[in-house]
Amino acid sequence: MAEFMKDETVKVIGIAGSIRQGSFNRMLLSNMFKLLPEWAEKEIVELNAIPVFNQDLEHDQPAEVTMIKEKVRQADLVIFTTPEYNHSMSGVLKNTLDWLSRPPVHNPFSWKVAAIASASTGAVGGARAQEDLRRTLTSLGAIAVPRPEVMIVNADKKFSQDGILTDPIAKNLIAELLDNSLRLALSVKRAQYETLTVFSRA
Ligand SMILES: Cc1cc2nc3c(=O)[nH]c(=O)nc-3n(C[C@H](O)[C@H](O)[C@H](O)COP(=O)(O)O)c2cc1C
């Protein structure tokens, strides 16, 4: 697991793109959060109360949106799990990203490290949804962790009754993705601090 310096922390926010009770992506996110190290500050934010995006309100956003936006802004790492709906990310997730991205001057994703995983009952595990999500995050200036690609295929057979991920290959993959993501998040955080120091010295 990634190493940290004394007094250093990393803030992690988790977002699942399905609000369905019994969602495999929500289960996947919970399993990932259980693997995060103790020194990480962590919180899963829920999307149930996010209204449908309306650009008329982009300068007067609902409280549910501004609350999540602020949490993303403060996070060093955002972990997304997304279902695949009709070869794309879910509307729930895209709707949230559209809110968070507006107005552009308040976009909280610039230089934000983002980890992506997906679970689907189908045979490609949400690969196409991940491509969509990666493209959207890139457009927002986020840094999507490239490897490993975590796609849980046949998700209805990969979790126990109480939501524990049971597939050994998937378990290894999420551990590796978290390790890479934490390393990158720490590197970006340290680099931003060093850049600030350099500029204040100039
Ligand atoms: C509207 C809709 C469209 C779907 N389209 C796809 C699809 O394109 N590819 C796929 O692998 N699964 C598809 N599925 C199946 C989902 O992967 C499956 O329902 C999954 O469990 C959803 O994620 P969740 O368990 O986190 O809610 C679709 C499901 C719904 C409801």
Q: In a nutshell, what does this entry contain?
A:
With 202 residues, the chain is an alpha/beta fold. The chain has 5 helices and 6 strands; from the N terminus they run βαβαβαβαββα.
Polypeptide structure, described:
The chain has 202 residues and is an alpha/beta fold. It is 40% helix and 15% strand. The protein is built from five helices and six strands. Strands 1, 2, 3, 4, 5 and 6 form a six-stranded parallel β-sheet that branches. It is globular and about 55 Å long.
Overall geometric form: globular
Number of domains: 1
Number of DSSP-assigned strands = 6
CATH-defined architecture: 3-Layer(aba) Sandwich
Q: Describe the biggest sheet?
A: 6 strands, parallel
The percentage helix is 40-55%
- CATH C-level class is Alpha Beta
Small ligands present:
flavin mononucleotide
Overall average pLDDT = 94
CATH topology annotation: Rossmann fold
What order do the helices and strands follow? EHEHEHEHEEH
